[in-house]
Amino acid sequence: MEAQARGLLETEPLQGRDEDTVASADFSSMLSEEEKEELKAELVQLEDEITTLRQVLSAKERHLVEIKQKLGMNLMNELKQNFSRSWHDVQTTTAYKKTQETLSHAGQKATAAFSNVGTAISKKFGDMSYSIRHSISMPAMRRK
Asked: Matching Pfam families, A to Z (predicted)?
């Protein structure tokens, strides 16, 4: 009997099978008619309170929308403000600053490299142009 009584007082959480057993159990046979009536009354009262709270919340949400409209605040403005605030927060982080510096430095190096490649290509085209002009003009000069 002592082991059975101790089993009722266990504080370990229910396992999946235990939860299914409890959910499918019919406790109504263990309740007196008076307790059943009290629980039914409490159930009705809780349902009424939940309905009232939903109505109050809905009214407050409508009032919130009205106030925002009067202040000229709409969804797009809020999104813009949130985005601006978030972007500012990102820009002030150390990681962002370091990344920005690294990318800026890499961009400068890439620009210099492209400039050097462009200069080299221009020089090659210039040399080729001179070579072509020279090879075309030399036979013409020899004929004279």
From this structure: TPD52
DSSP assignment letter at 31: S
Q: CA-CA distance, 136 to 110, in Å (whole number)?
A: 38
Contact 41, 49 (CB under 8 A): no
How large is the average pLDDT for residues 54-62? 97
pLDDT tens digit sequence for 30-42: 889 999 999 999 9
| Contact between 96 and 90 (Cβ < 8 Å) | yes
**Residue 72, by phi and psi: left (phi above 0), alpha (psi -120 to 50) or beta?**
left
Domain regions of the chain by residue span: 18-77, 84-144
DSSP 46-115: HHHHHHHHHHHHHHHHHHHHHHHHHTT--HHHHHHHHHHHHHHHHHTSHHHHHHHHHHHHHHHHHHHHHH
pTM for the model: 0.37
